[in-house]
Design a protein that fits this description.
Elements: E1 2-6, H1 10-21, E2 25-30, H2 36-45, E3 48-51, H3 58-68, E4 72-74, H4 83-92, E5 96-99, H5 105-122, E6 128-135, H6 145-157, E7 163-165, E8 178-185, E9 192-198, E10 203-209, H7 214-227, E11 232-235, H8 236-245
Parallel strand pairs: 1-2, 1-3, 3-4, 4-5, 5-11, 6-8, 7-8
Antiparallel strand pairs: 6-9, 9-10
The structure holds NADP nicotinamide-adenine-dinucleotide phosphate (NAP).
NADP nicotinamide-adenine-dinucleotide phosphate binds at residues 6-12, 30-33, 52-54, 57, 75-78, 100-103, 216.
């Protein structure tokens, strides 16, 4: 597969590494100052585009993918405010977009099991829950997309009986129906997410800690392999099982 990279920072370079190891070719890189004509040239040569850039670039990246009729993987986070409009735009143009707040396959499994466990225990008396995330100090958004996804999935699984709160109030207690999201920024940490459950007799922590960025890159490349030849607006979570059983010879 020929891949065009949008963004060539920490994640763009990890995608290049992983994609090349899977036998794909990087046909070009689009960065902040890349002129429009060059962006179009990269997209034209690509079978798929993979975007790990900045939230404010996502609408233009979607427009580029639709104009050149290329499948687009969006790994960039922080563009939630545009999500609905982009979904409509992609569907109206019969485009092909797959996005995820977190492309790590292990994180998707962590989210599923963390929500199931928390939902089960919070039905019992005396249990409380919190979420913590830790990332490198260069991260531009907080809480992380993954922490927000965990919080919202928990909120829905509990029939909206518990509200996530970030940041924790400084001059009052949390309400009974609220749970806290904690955020830390330190050094070069790739990404840690933790679910904390406090019960009357027990304390449970489930932690996912990324050992490198390659796990995110791997999921994004697998998603690109799956997306080529399909149209629609997909999330990684909803098609993950299908992606994992996708035949290798289609690469
Ligand atoms: N979904 C996931 O699994 C996942 C995992 C990790 C990170 N992320 C997200 O991925 C994004 C990138 O993270 P990162 O750590 O790689 O960031 P980074 O190291 O800061 O790299 C960002 C890259 O985006 C480029 N860029 C900025 N504006 C652009 C524009 N208008 N058009 C094209 N490229 C542009 C930058 O170009 P220059 O080099 O020219 O400055 C840079 O190469 C963030 O939103 C992060 O939260 C997602």
């Amino acid at each position: 597969m020929h891949i065009g990279l949008i963004g060539y920072g920490r994640m763009g370079q990890a995608v290049e590494r992983v994609a090349t190891a899977r036998g794909h070719h990087i046909v070009g890189v689009i960065r902040r100052e890349t002129p429009i004509a060059m962006r179009e040239a990269v997209a034209q040569q690509a079978d798929a585009l993979i975007d790990f850039s900045r939230a404010d670039a996502v609408p233009d990246n979607v427009a580029l993918a639709l104009a050149t009729k290329k499948p687009l993987i969006i790994g960039t986070t922080g563009w939630d405010a545009h999500r609905l409009a982009i979904e409509r735009q992609v569907r109206a143009a019969d485009g092909s977009v797959l996005h995820a707040l977190n492309f790590s396959i292990a994180v998707q499994a962590f989210l599923k099991h963390a929500v199931n466990l928390a939902t089960q225990l919070l039905q019992l008396e005396g249990w409380d829950v919190a979420i913590e995330e830790i990332h490198h100090r260069g991260k531009a958004d907080a809480p992380s997309g993954t922490a927000r996804a965990l919080a919202m999935r928990l909120h829905h699984a509990l029939d909206a009986s518990h509200e996530p709160v970030y940041p924790v109030p400084t001059e009052r207690r949390l309400d009974e129906n609220q749970f806290a999201i904690g955020v830390l920024r330190v050094g070069s940490e790739f990404g840690t997410h933790r679910l904390l459950l406090d019960g009357p007799f027990d304390w449970i922590e489930i932690t996912h800690r990324a050992k490198s960025r390659d796990g995110f890159a791997y999921g994004a490349v697998r998603a690109a392999e799956w997306l080529v030849g399909r149209t629609g607006f997909f999330t990684f979570q909803e098609v993950l099982n299908d992606i994992l059983t996708h035949r290798e010879e289609q690469r």
